[in-house]
Design a protein that fits this description.
about 625 residues, alpha/beta, seven-stranded mixed beta sheet, 24 strands, globular
Length: about 625
């Protein structure tokens, strides 16, 4: 189970001399400083730029990482919940809504969540022809005054909102930002701080295709502006983040002795592939390496265990490991989550990957494991600088601790791109004389990118074949106390209590790539129907299906305010296996209640963020919840 620990230092005063009194005073001040450092409660106010969404990124998660890397334990509060790459944060951000909307709601919101630090980024969702600046300014004044009336010690950070290329709609934003700065200056209140979010922001680089919402780099820019403002205001003190490790194509460590021992015996072999969409891809490195092994060992029968789920990280991998991997008793497990885990905190990556390792070897100490790393366009500058990205650096720490071999399949690709002999992304017909790694900078093409991945994997696998004396892998002490060794997925029949109109269906699973992993799900379209789960621990989540007919859910844990979690995103033009996991719960026993949210989603606005054109809206008119399992 996850545990957050604070270290409290006890000071013992043995002698009443001046020197010891002074030392005692210093110790007390240090303890107070540490307590303050680990006690940050933050309320994020805004719209979709704060909330985040499908296809774009919330800056709150990057800010959370920056604060944690600096030694803080921030607690983001609010009536809503966003989930991004395994992390869960709360806030009061409302997609598609205006500053005036927040002004009307702020009294009830802030009385329920009176955080000391408030981050306000609101100014979009108007049209220039409305001449909205004056109204937005008045809304900001109302928001600030209400907060200060309820909690005079609150610190309010008011953002000059990021500019957008969606013109002429957002032509008013530069004038709004100047007016917001002047308004904050006129208050002459040191507890109200203006934060210019235009610093280092360029919508043509830092926004997704809609020219408004931040991409991953844009979210980082916004978060760093917030962090600098918090530091200048002496709310936080910067610290160095986790170190990135130098690149290395191959680390054999303990090798794959049991795998190669069995290969030479001619016995049937099972190979499991645990990962995301890069591993899932048909005709990719997974299929290609199996073909190579069949050619090299023609007397051996190879059986593949498909355990890759597109768009998922090692957190979901740790939860579903038993059903999707260990129950099949593979001889070798390839683990690939480098790309999907890359935006996570390194500590979380270590916790989830270590959980996978410990579960596998607890199930079968003769099972061999190999970490394989891939990359995407966002990792390219880091790799070219000779450093592993954050996710790989964290995974290497786990691999070192347990003696697990690791192979970065993409370094030869990086070298080719750096030398101008390969393009990382683009259209096939453009510059046809230069090979294309991928169309999107993430998913390799089978005949180029995946082919190079396979060549690297095959090369380094064969370098381990001489080490084939069978061993039983033993588990050393844990690297991370909060590792996911006890993570899992249980059936709804075993732990869920249904109330209202529920039924089972395979209509959204049959014929899909994930059918073998989740054949049937429970479904409801009734707002009155509920699913109640009693559980113990600090994590809770659901494995579910997202698609055109899904909507938002309302999750209530114990007596906490309900969390609204969207189960529809800009990629929900088809049905796919998905999940969410809350990781911020207090240790102990809990009760979770899930139902459909009564508040309708603006599916058209969500799809618009990816410029999706819908010809038939009928499938999107449904509001259904499809649940397949409980994650912990």
């Amino acid at each position: 189970m996850n545990k957050r620990m604070l270290t409290n230092t006890r000071y013992i005063y043995l002698f009443l001399t001046w020197s010891i009194l002074l030392a005692g005073c210093a110790a007390r001040l240090a303890q107070q400083s540490t307590e303050k450092k680990h006690d940050l409660e933050i309320l994020g106010l805004g719209d979709s730029i704060t909330e985040g969404g499908p296809g774009f990124f919330s800056y709150l998660f990057t800010l959370d990482s920056l604060l944690k890397q600096s030694g803080y334990h921030p607690r983001f509060v609010g009536p809503k919940t966003s989930i991004q790459s395994g992390d869960t944060l709360r806030h009061a951000a409302f997609s598609g809504m205006t500053a005036e909307f927040i002004a009307k709601k702020i009294d009830s919101i802030y009385r329920a969540y009176p955080a000391k630090l408030v981050l306000l980024h609101s100014g979009h969702n108007h049209f220039a022809e409305e001449k909205p600046v004056a109204g937005i300014l008045n809304a900001h004044r109302t928001i600030i005054a209400t907060i200060k009336k309820i909690n005079p010690s609150a610190k309010v950070f008011v953002a000059g909102v990021v500019t957008a290329g969606k013109l002429p709609k957002y032509e008013y934003i530069p004038a709004l930002d100047d007016a917001l700065r002047n308004m904050v200056d006129s208050l002459k209140d040191p507890s109200v701080v203006y934060v210019d979010q235009r610093n280092n922001w360029n919508w043509s680089i830092h926004a997704i295709s809609d020219k408004v919402h931040p991409n991953r780099e844009g979210a980082r820019i916004i978060a760093e502006n917030w962090f600098r403002a918090l530091a200048v205001s002496k709310q936080v003190q910067p610290a160095q983040p986790d170190s990135l490790l130098p690149v290395k194509a191959f680390a054999p460590r303990g090798g794959l002795p049991n795998f190669f021992s069995k290969l030479n015996s001619g016995k049937p072999m099972k190979i499991a592939f645990l990962g995301g969409s890069i591993t899932r891809a048909g005709g990719g490195y997974r299929d290609q390496i199996i073909e190579k092994l069949m050619d090299q060992y023609p007397k051996t029968t190879f059986q593949e265990v498909m355990a890759a789920v597109s768009g998922t990280g090692s957190d979901f991998g740790a939860c579903r490991l038993k059903q999707h991997v260990t129950d099949h008793r593979p001889d070798l497990v390839f683990v690939e989550f480098a790309v999907n885990d890359n935006r996570w905190r390194m500590k979380l990556v270590r916790e989830t990957m270590e959980g996978i390792v410990r579960q596998l070897w607890n199930a079968d100490p003769e099972m061999d494991i190999c970490f394989v790393y891939t990359f995407s366009a966002e990792n390219l500058p880091t790799l070219q600088a000779g450093k592993f990205p954050a996710s790989v650096s964290a995974m290497e720490q786990v691999a070192n601790h347990y003696g697990i071999p690791s192979i970065h399949m993409g370094l030869d690709v990086v070298n080719e791109i750096t030398r101008g002999r390969m393009r990382i992304s683009g259209k096939k017909e453009e510059h046809a004389d230069i090979p294309l790694f991928s169309l999107d900078g993430v998913h390799p093409l089978p005949q180029t990118g995946h082919k190079m991945y396979t060549a690297a994997l095959d090369k380094y696998l064969m370098q381990m074949k001489e080490k084939r004396t069978p061993v039983k892998h033993t588990l050393p002490g844990a690297l991370e106390a909060g590792n996911w060794e006890n993570a899992g997925m249980v059936s709804l029949e075993a732990q869920g209590k249904f109330s209202g109109n529920w039924g089972t269906t395979d209509s959204v699973t049959l014929g899909k790539e994930y059918y073998s992993l989740m054949r049937t799900v429970y479904a409801t379209a009734s707002p009155e129907a509920t699913l109640t789960v009693n559980f113990e621990g600090t994590r809770f989540g659901l494995a579910d299906i997202m698609g055109p007919g899904t909507s938002a859910i309302e999750l209530t844990i114990d007596q906490q305010p309900p969390r609204v979690i969207s189960r529809f995103d800009a990629f929900s033009t088809y049905y796919r296996l998905n999940y969410f996991i809350l990781t911020d719960l207090a240790p102990g026993k809990h009760t979770a209640t899930i139902r459909l949210s009564p508040a309708p989603l603006n599916k058209a606005a969500i799809l618009e963020t990816r410029n999706v054109v819908v010809k038939d809206w009928a499938p999107y008119e449904k509001n259904v919840l499809y649940v397949g399992g409980i994650l912990y």
